[in-house]
Write a structure and sequence with these properties.
Layout lengths: L1 H5 L4 H15 L2 H10 L6 H12 L5 H11 L11 E2 L5 E2 L1 E3 L4 E3 L34
Antiparallel strand pairs: 1-2, 3-4
Helix pairs in contact: 2-4, 3-4
């Protein structure tokens, strides 16, 4: 996997490959250990960043860019990610204390509201962020 990372043509390709591969093919701890055993490797700093973020639950290039270009620069609170919904579904993040659900990639099929619609509207709402962040 690290050989493929070193051969990435650009940052966008590397971000896409790792954020989509780590959750499916390995885990961040194993990849970090393999990286630490390597001498020189192209893109080491970016690989370290991506591995660290996937360890926190990042599962897509958009989620990685959201953190780097929106969440941290604007000092937004860190959501629980991924967020397990009571229905069994998963959202990109959840801010329970604010009763806000973060879904960057659009509403996923079969996703139900995070909080019951029976709750009074003044204390129960949903928020979906459909965010398009251009590749850098």
């Amino acid at each position: 996997m690290l050989d493929l990372c070193a051969a990435a043509r650009d940052d966008a390709a590397l971000i896409g490959f790792l954020t989509l591969s780590i959750p499916r093919l390995t885990d961040p701890t194993k990849l970090r250990r393999a990286l630490d055993r390597r001498g020189r490797i192209a893109h080491r700093s970016l690989i370290n960043d991506i591995v660290a973020e996937t360890a926190t639950g990042v599962q897509s290039p958009l989620e990685f860019r959201w953190i780097k270009q929106v969440e941290r620069p604007h000092r937004l609170p860190t959501p629980t990610r991924p967020y397990q919904l009571p229905s069994g579904g998963v959202a990109d993040g959840g801010y329970e204390e604010f009763r806000v659900l973060l879904e960057l990639d659009g509403r996923r099929a079969g996703m139900t509201p995070l909080w019951s619609r029976a709750s009074p509207p003044e204390i129960c709402f949903e928020y979906y962020a459909d965010v398009a962040i251009p590749a850098s």
